[in-house]
Amino acid sequence: MNRTPTQESSIDESNRPSAWRDEGYRPESAEWPQLWSRLQLGQPLTGTVVWVPRPGAIGIGVDLGLPVGGFVDVLHLPLDSTRWPAQGTTTDFTIWWMDERPQVRLMPADPRYRREDFDDWIRHQNTVAAKVFRTGGAETRD
Question: Where does the record place Basic and acidic residues bias (predicted)?
């Protein structure tokens, strides 16, 4: 896999694991904006890995104990998928991104579960999430 500093990723919604089709992961449209407004980029959350559909290829799904699921993109995880947190692992994460889709994008807080070149990679990212992560703060929306 070739990772470039500016490479972004997206989730193929059609190939989502069935657990995300459950009401527990897909809130009513009125519920997500309320929850979203209480969360912040850079905010720490603890969650449990609930699915690893294709190790090394997609990423991992995380139960955050919220009405929406969390997702860690493959770009944030080690190239060696044996270093990924296994299904059932409870660990800490940092909110990396949120938008109108009812899902919380996450970054592993534990360096063992981050990509091998994380320190260099994060320095070269030009996103709000990377800036918040580098400064160790949380970003609020107006």
Answer: 13-24
Entry field: residues in the chain: 142
CA distances from 97 to 1, 72, 80, 88 (A): 23, 10, 24, 23
Q: What is the pLDDT of residues 58-112, one digit of tens each?
A: 899 999 988 888 999 999 999 999 999 999 999 999 999 998 888 899 999 999 9
Any domain includes 139: no
Judge contact between 85 and 63, C-beta under 8 A.
Answer: no
> How many structural domains are present in the chain?
1
Distance CA 118, CA 47 (A): 21
b (16+ CB within 10 A) / e for 42-64: bbebebbbbbbeeeeebbbbbbb
Contact 103, 113 (CB under 8 A): no
Q: Please give the single-letter amino acid code of residue 80.
A: D
> Residue 104 belongs to what domain range?
20-132
Q: Match 């109108």 to its residue by tokens.
A: 100
Q: The domain that contains 98 carries what CATH number?
A: 2.40.50.140
Q: Is 8 a domain residue? A: no
Domain assignment of residue 12, yes or no = no
